Amino acid sequence: MKHPDDDNELFNRLEAEMAADQSADATGDVVDLDKARSARAESADPTPDPSPDCRSSESADPEPSESDDSATALVDRQEPTGSGPGLIDRIRDSKRLDVIPVWMRSRPEFVDAMKWLAGHAWHTVAFHAVRVPFLYVPKLIWRSPRGLANTLGRVGRWAVDAEGEPLRQAEARRENSELYLKLSRQRDRRVRLRMVVTGLGALFTLVAGLFLVYGAEPMTQVIATAVIVLVLGWLGAPADAPLATRAVTKTEVQKLTSDIVVKAMASIGIGQIANAVAKGQDGIKFVAPITREGPGWRADIDLPLGVTVADVADRRARLASGLRRPLGCVWPDADPNEHEGRLILWVGDRDLSKTGVVKWQLVNAARHDVFKRIPFGIDPRGRAQSVPLIQHNVLIGSLPGQGKTSSVRVLACGVALDPSVELWLHENKGTGDLDSLACVSHRFVSGIDDESITYAADSLKLLREEVMRRAAAIKKLPRDLCPDKRITRRIADTRSLKLWPLLAVFDECQNLFAHPTVGKQAGEDAEFIIKLGRALGVILVLATQRPDKDSLPTGVSGNVSIRFALKVAGQVENDMILGTSAYKNGVRATAFRPEIDAGNGYLSGATTLPVVVRTAYLDDPATNAVAQRALALRKVEGTLSGFALGEEAETAAGPAYDLLADVVAVVPTSEERVWNERIAARLAELRPEVYGGWKGENVTSALKPHGIKTRDVAGTTDDGTRTTRRGIVRADLTKAITERNQNRGAA
Known about the structure:
The chain is an alpha/beta fold. 48% of the residues lie in helices and 12% in strands. The chain is built from 27 helices and 18 strands.
């Protein structure tokens, strides 16, 4: 007779096994339910002071086991009655998944997806339609004899029950006569029936063939023959040589799984993760299933305690190696809505640099509102990224040839499509990258000579005066029109107030800020404008290929709100553009590859967290087309001014001077060679308001852009001592003036 305790013991064992399976699936640990129940009972025991025996037994256990930890975890999860969040609170705090995918709710993304699907379908249909008469039909005709032979062979084998022959022979070899005789009798019955069916089928086929040859219409004969030949050709196709070729070759990308992610994370050198994996644990926790997002896979991960997303981003190259994917496919990001240990790992199907040219969203737009964000490019997941300009200033930096000026051109074209905006463009590289937009600019210059640099410096002085004027004008506006004391769309459209948005672009601004004469004042003016002008509708866009303290004043780089860094050389340059500690926090534009990643950069300030963006590209014809539409808009609304109307450029108040002419004036023809320190002293006497405080080094720096080289010049000091110091040859000076005048005449 079975004892009742046996049933209880069996039930407890089954319950423990089920709980162990569930625990192993979740965490990889086996939970001892007996210990868990005892721990739960002890925690529920109201006795305040345990007995000495209990204390001694507890102290006798020197080290808690893993099962004890699991039991403790189970106890910790027991919520006391009446405390902690209730059911409604837990439901309210839960994260809801999107009912409709983001790409279906975004009109541009939905249209792009439908365009791709239609294009894919059309390509497939056209691909096969072209090959049907010239490739597929000849193949079927060629294979039809083989198909006929295959068909007759299959019918013959079926009629004589050839598929059962191996089994019968096997039983004969084992000398199992009884089973062999049963199989033989079964085969005889099958063959008799199948022979009758085969005979009737052959007779029907013969009659149908005679009818088609002698009694059917010619068209019916042609159709029947074609069908029979094509079917036989289909049946005669070899298994390793399909009839149709692929219209699209699919690039096989390994599916991202939790095992792959765990192994890759364990290989990047973070101790907490590696130690957990070594103990048979994952080390990381997946808070959501790995899913497809855009052209790639997304994994939401909780990192171990004390590990941040910046720690993983710092090891992005190792992570890419662990995932066996190109560096441009692996993008670890933080979740701005969660804690610092929440990692969003996105692994793309292809390298971001191989995305190709990104089409600008406004390339065919008739106009755009500058108070809305300017489309700028896409992120690695293919999502559109844009930049707000109102109440912001922009700093763009990179090494030469990485797409800096192209980024500037995208922003300038977006602003040009708003006819209320006044454009001031300064391209201090002299290559004409922004010449197409000159027709809509209030102020415009392109060049690297002193005159162009001075023009840009004058613009900053004028902008400083404009900021002060606007501040006084906004102060007088009524509160109902300007409640926040900043430019709005309504204020901008009221032309009588003269408070429309004003965008000033300074490309290659290092040539301006590092200029020996006007650079210091230009830096001070730019800092003043950046600090006060953003709320007044004055926007600066600065681009540089040499972000250091001399060519980019710290007061300027430290107050810019939106930053875009393409490939830079090192940590100092990275933090000069993206802000202090950006490199330390894992935002590293140094990781981009020269030329390969041209156009890719970190965009900071336009979104909650810095994001990698591949900028849209506009070539010169596309830029010119946008400029012509912008010109037409301004003509209709009457907002053309300044340079666009051919008016004389406004100059800032201050002394006018010509450096080369002044040097010639202080170096007489009798002096073939002269020291730079003497030139500085004479210039200070000639124009103390301009050259006051100059030394020989200032003269050297000021003459260098004009191609005048300094050299060792022998001379006599005031006390009669013969010595050699740095100076110039007057012939070089006159040659530089002649070439400059000839260039101006040609222009």
